[in-house]
Backbone:
């Protein structure tokens, strides 16, 4: 997409492309799952799909193409859903974008003991220091990973934080979808 930095590696570009796409949809969106495929291979093996994605006229485009999958079900926990996924060989990686509430590290010491999961979620939602964040995490079969974080209060493509270890738990869960 237009705002993705060309100097970034292909996985970072894919994560930023997905973040930009999700940003265009606005906030308060459901989680979205993407298969990542090798763009050159897609163009060679699936020319009709490449044409549908607008990739046929730009043969110099290499890297990874994100392909959004069916909706992520909201009626069961995300980790359980991810445990049901298996990818075909043509998929070299996957990515997930999800919105969550986060607290700064200083607020973690204030969490009351003994809260149920639902009580903890309500406590975080009511906390004055909470931040709404959109996390986009991608992993490749070879173990590489990348993440992008966008705060709702700083909703700008120039304010997106990237790095491989920003959301390690989600990266591990996505990596597990490639295990036999």
Residues:
């Amino acid at each position: 997409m237009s705002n993705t930095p060309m100097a970034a590696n292909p996985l970072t570009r894919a994560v930023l492309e997905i973040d930009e796409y999700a940003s265009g949809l606005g906030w308060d969106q459901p989680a979205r799952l993407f298969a990542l495929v090798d763009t050159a291979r897609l163009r060679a093996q699936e020319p009709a799909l490449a044409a549908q994605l607008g990739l046929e006229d730009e043969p110099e485009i290499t890297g990874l193409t994100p392909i959004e999958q069916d909706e992520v079900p909201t009626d069961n926990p995300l980790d359980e859903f991810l445990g049901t996924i298996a990818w075909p060989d043509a998929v070299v990686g996957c990515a997930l974008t999800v919105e969550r509430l986060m607290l700064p590290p200083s607020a973690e010491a204030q969490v009351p003991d003994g809260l149920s999961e639902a009580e903890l979620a309500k406590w975080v939602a009511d906390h004055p220091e909470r931040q709404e964040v959109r996390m986009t995490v991608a992993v490749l079969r070879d173990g590489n990973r990348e993440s992008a974080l966008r705060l709702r209060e700083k909703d700008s493509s120039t304010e997106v934080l990237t790095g491989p270890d920003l959301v390690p738990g989600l990266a591990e869960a996505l990596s597990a979808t490639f295990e036999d």
User: Anything to note?
Assistant: The CA atoms of residues 38 and 64 lie 5 Å apart. The helical segments are 10-25, 39-45, 47-52, 78-82, 105-108, 117-126, 168-175. The first strand starts at residue 32 and ends at 38.
